[in-house]
């Protein structure tokens, strides 16, 4: 199973917004207009992604496909309804 090394950046402008890019290409394939709206990217982490890896708020298959096709994956913050559902799910496990 192949793995892709990805760098993940958080947006200083919008809580919960993350940008996933190939570590080797870094931000070179991200459109300038997106970077302006995103703000100065803040390094969150570097991860090895593969099809069998789970991510908290994104489908790893979609992330890898988007990075291959357009050079990045933009994870938007959850909607208030999604956030409440996640909290309910976490609390039900307590």
Automatic annotation (TrEMBL):
Residues spanning the membrane: none
Domain spans labelled YcgL: 4-88
One Pfam family named in its UniProt record: YcgL
InterPro entries: YcgL-like_sf, YcgL_dom
Protein name (database record): YcgL domain-containing protein Q8A57_09140
Organism, as annotated: Porticoccus litoralis
Lineage, highest ranks first: Bacteria, Pseudomonadati, Pseudomonadota, Gammaproteobacteria, Cellvibrionales
